[in-house]
C-alpha cells in the first residue's frame, strides 16, 4: 500500500472549531445524564442541577460561646461596683458553644465574664443585651436557599455547606470516560533495564493525569504493537466502554503509522495535521459518534495536542466552558526564532529580576519531557511571525499556579535549582 503523507497545515483553531462543531451536530456535547452520589464523594464533580438547602443552619437558636444563658432584662444594672448574683438553673443556665438556647432565655454571657460564687450561684459584672452571643436560626443558611448552581465544580467548601444544610446526595454529571491507547512495537512497560531500541511507555500516565485534572475518568489500555488488526480490535473495544479515545503514537506518516487509515476505515477523519510546533501530526476523527484523537508519540507533542483538543472536549462534555489559562507578562531573556507558517509553543522558565519577570526559553525538542516538567509557562509565537526579540515583552501562559510564581522563586530547571 502506498504511503499517504499528510500535507495539511490548517490552523489548530480552525481544526478545533470543525471538530467541536461536528460533535455538537451529533449531540455529543449536549452533556451527560445526571447521576446521584453521596455528597462526601462529590469533590470536583460538576452539578447537574441546582442544589438547595434542606434545612436551615443552624436549625435552632444556638449558643455561640461557652458561658451562661440568661434573660437579658434580668441582668440590667450589673456593674463592676454592683455585681449581680444569678441563681443557676433558674435565672442562668450553663451552656457550651453549639448548645440549644434554653427556652425563655435570650442572651449568653461568655464564661470569661462569669464568676461562680458557689455551685448554685453565678456572678456577673456586666449586663447582657438580647441576642448577645446567640446564633439565630438560619444565620448561615436558610432552608430553601440556593447553595450551588447547575454546572458548578464542587469545592470542599461547597461540600461542607451542603452537609450543614442537610443535603446528603447530589446530582452530578458523570465523568467523561477517556480511553488512552499506547501503541508501538518499540514500547515496553517502565523498567530500569530497557534494551537498546526499547522505549519506556510513560505518555499513558501523563495523559491520564491531564484527563483527571480536567474532570475525566481515564483508562490506560495495555500497549498495542504496530499491528493494524490488533489496533482495530483495541480501538473498537475502547469505543465500547468510553466517551473519548486517545490513540498515542502512529499519527504521523511512517510505514507503521496506522491511526489515520484506521479512523478513516471505521469513521471519519476531520483533520490530519495542524500548523503547530510541536504537535503537527495530530488526527481528529469521529468513530461511532465518538471523538477519536490521534496523539503524536513525542511526549511534549502529546501533551500539547491533549491540551488543545482533548481538554475542550472533556470540559464541554461535562457542560462546562474550558477555563482560560492563567497568564503573566514577562520580558524575554533571549531571542526566539520561529519559522513562518506554524504556530509555535515555546516552553519557558520564569525568573524575577527586581519588579519584573524574565522568561527564559528552554529546550524546544518535542521529546524532551523534563523541559516541559520544569517549565513555568508557554510563549506562543503566531504562525505569521518569525519570533520575538530579546527584551521584548511577551505573554506567558502559565503551567503552574500564578500565586506560586508571584510569592517566591519560580520552579527552576536542574542546572539552576531542582
TrEMBL record:
Q: Which Pfam families match?
A: MoCF_biosynth, MoeA_C, MoeA_N
Please cite one Gene Ontology biological process associated with this protein: Mo-molybdopterin cofactor biosynthetic process
Mind telling me which SUPFAM superfamilies this protein's record contains? Answer: MoeA C-terminal domain-like (SSF63867), MoeA N-terminal region -like (SSF63882), Molybdenum cofactor biosynthesis proteins (SSF53218)
Gene Ontology CC terms, in alphabetical order: cytosol
A GO molecular function assigned to this protein is: metal ion binding
Transferase as a keyword of this entry, yes or no, is yes
**Membrane-traversing stretches:** none
Q: Which UniProt keywords apply?
A: Magnesium, Metal-binding, Molybdenum, Molybdenum cofactor biosynthesis, Transferase
**Boundaries of each MoaB/Mog domain copy?**
179-316
Instruction: Supply the EC number(s).
Output: 2.10.1.1
The pathway entry for this protein reads as:
Cofactor biosynthesis; molybdopterin biosynthesis
Write down the chemical reaction(s) this protein catalyses: adenylyl-molybdopterin + molybdate = Mo-molybdopterin + AMP + H(+)
User: Which cofactor does the UniProt annotation name?
Assistant: Mg(2+)
Under the heading PANTHER family, the entry gives: MOLYBDOPTERIN BIOSYNTHESIS PROTEIN (PTHR10192), MOLYBDOPTERIN MOLYBDENUMTRANSFERASE (PTHR10192:SF16)
Which family does the record claim for this protein? Belongs to the MoeA family.
Concerning NCBIfam families, the annotation shows: molyb_syn
What function is annotated for this protein?
Catalyzes the insertion of molybdate into adenylated molybdopterin with the concomitant release of AMP. May be involved in the biosynthesis of molybdopterin.
* Protein known as: Molybdopterin molybdenumtransferase
